[in-house]
UniProtKB/TrEMBL annotation:
Keywords: Lyase, Pyridoxal phosphate. The active site is at 369 (proton donor). Residues 66-296 form the Orn/DAP/Arg decarboxylase 2 N-terminal domain. Its cofactor is pyridoxal 5'-phosphate. This is ornithine decarboxylase. GO terms for molecular function: ornithine decarboxylase activity. One of its GO terms (biological process) is putrescine biosynthetic process from arginine, via ornithine. PROSITE patterns: ODR_DC_2_1 (PS00878), ODR_DC_2_2 (PS00879). Its EC number is 4.1.1.17. Homodimer. Only the dimer is catalytically active, as the active sites are constructed of residues from both monomers. It catalyses: L-ornithine + H(+) = putrescine + CO2. The gene is 11426024.
Length: 428
């Protein structure tokens, strides 16, 4: 196996210093990977050096992925300020890296605000983007100077007037189109078109400033064209506010719904085009976005150990030590379709990636005693043994943030190894 750190990557370390010294990252071991080392090689090296330690399941966070995605964002959406949606993955090293790259943050609760502030991020880089907040959390936001939030009903105006009257408001609207997203946030949030004038008036009467509009087209696989329709709706709200004689709005918050890869190019094209079409001559406009999945999804890889096996005819059934109550809860809550690849450990001392041609329709169960805890069904896998490993790529979005300790099993959130690959590795 190639060595993990090369001289070439030593020189990179100098460039990466601001990130390695960022709060949330500093104090953690970061393994810099040379260009010929894959994340899977790195996982094997972890397994090899710590076979007896109780370190499974674990995740690998690749800081390079975050750096590259931030570069891509600023290149393709140069006028849109990113506010990372913390709920997607609140891992402190991820948040710290994003902060050191200049990101702002979308927080939805007191605890999320606290964790971002604990990294030394200024409160004016935080938007409290939860349209329905409890009074105690609003009071907390006021006390720490988080002064922008969203709302979509009159009840929220009352609470904000009472506990945080200096807070600026963005009216969250419900996008019209069904964007085809896996997770449709419009089912819960967003003012309807005909509710907009009354809500604007209610905020105005309460003496609150409505400075802009927000929306979310839905998370995971949304049609990029949905940004177009939603930005047009937002423009109409800007116009309604002007018609009502309210101060000119200036913030357009286009929410999340981004994924990395080629879908991002399409989304960026639609966003830029819609802004140009509908807000082209508005020089004071501030556009912000709230990407969650975009930054988190591909940055984490999950490694789980095969802890049990049953053979029934051709069928192979395996138990692994993480499941749908843990990191893999994205299968349930995020409608994720996961894929995995086997790493041999128990059966071959060399830890070679298994290339056996023969595969079996396999079921992969999580560790809890609930039959719902099934990760994969009829998934073709080579013959595995107890103590082999299954590695799941793209496991950073809506995974560790919503796992539980049901039945006494912990998730990979407890063991995170930080790596920084070289640029050529991204996408492997
Ligand atoms: C969840 C959420 C996001 C992040 O959505 P992604 O699709 O993961 O980018 C952004 N904004 C708000 C208000 C959210 O609730």
């Amino acid at each position: 196996m190639p060595t993990l750190v090369t001289e070439e990557s030593q020189s990179q370390i100098t460039n990466l210093k601001p990130i390695f010294c960022a709060s949330g990252v500093k104090g953690n071991k970061v393994t810099t990977l040379s260009s010929e080392v894959t994340i899977s090689d790195f996982i094997q090296s972890i397994i090899k050096t710590k076979p007896t330690e109780n370190d499974s399941p674990f995740s690998v966070l690749d800081l390079r992925v975050i750096i590259d995605l931030m570069n891509k964002w600023t290149t393709e959406l140069p006028t849109v300020k990113p506010f990372y949606a913390v709920k997607c993955n609140p891992n402190i090293s991820l948040i710290g890296t994003l902060a050191s790259l200049g990101s702002n943050f979308d927080c939805a609760s007191r605890a999320e605000i606290e964790s971002v502030l604990s990294l030394g991020v200024s409160p004016d880089k935080i938007i409290y983007a939860n349209p329905c907040k409890s009074e105690s959390h609003i009071k907390y936001a006021a006390s720490v100077g988080v002064n922008v939030t969203t709302f979509d009903c009159a009840g929220e105006v009352e609470k904000i007037k009472k506990w945080h009257p200096k807070c600026e408001l963005l009216l969250r609207i419900k996008p019209e189109e069904d964007s085809g997203a896996r997770s449709c946030l419009g089912l819960k949030y967003g003012a309807l078109h005909n509710e907009v004038p009354e809500l604007l008036k209610a905020a105005d009467m309460a003496g609150l400033k409505v400075t802009g509009v927000s929306f979310h087209i839905g998370s995971g696989g949304a049609d990029a064209k949905a940004y177009h329709g939603a930005i047009l709706l937002a423009k109409e709200v800007f116009e309604t506010a002007s018609r009502l004689g309210m101060p000119k709005m200036k913030i357009l918050d286009i929410g999340g719904g981004f994924t990395s890869g080629s879908k991002f190019d399409e989304a960026a094209f639609n966003v830029n085009d819609a802004i140009k079409t509908h807000f082209g001559n508005d020089e004071d406009l501030v556009v912000i976005g709230e990407p969650g999945r975009y930054f988190a999804e591909t940055a984490f890889t999950l490694a789980t150990k095969v802890i049990g096996k049953r053979v029934r005819g051709e069928m192979r059934e395996y138990w692994i030590d993480d499941g749908i109550y843990g990191t893999l809860n994205n299968i349930v809550f995020d409608y994720a379709i996961v894929k995995c690849m086997p790493l041999r450990f128990g059966s071959k001392p060399e830890n070679v990636i298994c290339k056996d041609p023969k595969t079996y329709p396999s079921t992969v169960f999580g560790p809890t005693c609930d039959s719902v805890d099934t990760v994969l069904k009829e998934y073709e896998l080579p013959e595995l043994k107890v103590n082999d490993w299954l590695v799941f790529p793209n496991m950073g979005a809506y995974t560790t943030s919503s796992g539980t300790n049901f039945n006494g099993f912990s998730s990979s959130a407890e063991h995170i190894h930080i790596a920084c690959s070289t640029p050529s590795l991204v996408g492997r």
